[in-house]
Design goal:
By secondary structure, the chain is of the alpha/beta class. It contains ten helices and 16 strands. α4 packs parallel to α5.
Length: 462
């Protein structure tokens, strides 16, 4: 049964122990810099977690993070697909002027193969200042575990070339693309592509979620005495849905695809629980801020109807309606981050200025985000009077400001929705609210910057 409204959790407050400046911005001394872990799921829908309303999929560990921390119900990814969404997260820019605006580019970039067919991909350049650069410059040891997806076909644009000190995972540019997806036979150990012995000769023994969690825990153990930034980018539950253990749902009267999809999420939830337990064991839990989010909505291959992956939201991965871009966002740090549900409108570009504030440094002036860290500690930040913006060059445009959202689908006329009263985008108000539509479109025009990699940008004609 689909959700008819957004889930509401009754949460109480925890005391604030971080010091605050006079202007309310949170800071930490050099000795008290909090560790930061950002966990990213891949193609997981807004309602795939129990704490966001799913009644079929069990996610007790992530639910616990939400119940004992801050969770947002109006949080948005950087895009409706992987590479541009991760680019927005890493660079603090929205997709109107990021280097990567789609998984594939129309011109420029580098040419390679996908499923045997030639395609172009763009990569982060040396001019792109990333979250890893920011945190490294703030004195943190930085590590990416698993999925980068910002190298295109350029082997010189990997995470170690864009600010990370350590990397364990897979790259597009290697030509290996982590195939088979969840049971890789090879995996990068920094710059060395090393064998995963248990998975050689097409054996499916060690699941990539387990390998990634082991790598993350090993990194944490090596940095007990150093402030660290860990970006743990799981593959789950991206298709192909490949996992041999489906014990969570073997008794369900579902097709095999649905059981595997749900199992990928519950397996990831167990991995998150294992990571949190290690923080507890090492005595790092109360000085580690943990984020959890998804890079976009659930994909067309997911059991969207059976498991209610995107709830009642319209659209899915690859589409800029709410089902493609609205995602769960959870922030947790016991005794510091407040237990609360927040309606504030936030999106991936906010992460860069937020981590800058938490690490005691300053975000670049060109970021499109704002520091939302005071919200974690029960303070107020105005987030809803600005425009949030998304584009797929020449394909789709979306923008939200306050309760209003505009959508243009593949050069069709702009649509207008009142998300406060119509969160599921069922009624187009473009004809009845022409002045609001005109204002929204005019402001959205200012968000786009030309790029040589997509020489035919989205049009704004209505």
């Amino acid at each position: 049964m689909k959700n008819s409204k957004l889930p509401v959790l009754g949460l109480s407050s925890l005391p604030l122990v971080f010091s605050a400046c006079a202007d309310g911005q949170q800071t930490a001394s050099r000795e008290d810099k909090p560790n930061v872990i950002f966990i990213l799921a891949d193609d997981m829908g807004y309602c795939d977690l129990s704490c966001y309303g799913n009644v079929e999929i069990t996610t007790p560990n992530i639910d616990r993070l939400a119940a004992t921390g801050t969770h947002f119900t109006n949080a948005y990814a950087g895009s409706a697909i992987s590479s541009p969404s991760r680019c927005a997260l890493m660079t603090g820019k929205h997709s109107g002027h990021t280097t990567i605006r789609d998984n594939f580019c129309n011109a420029g970039g580098l040419t390679g193969l996908k499923n045997g067919a030639p395609i172009r991909r763009m990569h982060l350049t040396q001019d792109d200042y990333t979250l890893a650069n920011l945190m490294h410059d703030a004195g943190y040891r930085t590590c990416l575990v698993n999925k980068w997806h910002l190298d295109g076909f350029n082997p010189g644009a990997g995470p170690l070339d864009r600010g990370f000190d350590e990397f364990y995972g897979w790259l597009i540019s290697s030509g290996q693309s982590n195939s088979p997806y969840y049971y890789p036979a090879k995996r990068f150990n920094n710059r060395d592509l090393s064998p995963v012995t248990a998975n050689e000769h097409e054996q499916q023994v060690r699941h990539n979620t387990d390998i990634s969690t082991d790598d993350a825990i090993a990194f944490i153990n090596r940095n007990v005495d150093n402030p660290f930034f860990l970006y743990l980018a799981f593959d789950a539950p991206h298709e192909p849905y490949n996992i041999n253990d489906t014990h969570w749902y073997d008794e369900k009267d579902w097709d095999a695809n649905s059981k595997r999809y749900a199992s990928l999420i519950s397996h990831m939830d167990e991995a998150v629980g294992r990571l949190i337990a290690e923080l507890d064991r090492l005595g790092l839990r109360e000085n580690t801020i943990v984020f959890f989010a998804s890079d976009n909505g659930a994909a067309v291959q997911a059991p969207l109807e059976l498991l209610n992956c995107n709830g009642s939201f319209r659209g899915r991965k690859g589409i800029v309606y709410e089902g493609g871009i609205r995602v769960p966002l959870i922030v947790n740090c016991p005794g510091k981050v407040k237990e609360q549900e927040l309606l504030n409108q936030v999106f991936f570009p906010d992460i860069m200025p937020t981590l800058a504030a938490l690490s005691g440094t300053k975000a670049p002036e060109w970021t499109d985000g704002i520091d939302i860290s005071p919200l974690f500690f029960g303070q107020q930040v105005e987030t809803d009077n600005r425009m949030l913006y998304w584009e797929f060059p020449g394909k789709q445009i979306a923008a939200r400001k306050g309760k209003w959202k505009i959508v243009q689908m593949r050069e069709q006329p702009f649509e207008l929705y009142d998300l406060e009263n119509d969160p599921f985008e069922t009624t187009d108000l473009a004809a009845s609210e022409p002045e609001i539509l005109e204002q929204m479109v005019a402001e959205a025009k200012t968000m786009h910057r030309p790029t040589p990699n997509w020489p035919l940008p989205g049009e704004f004609e209505n």
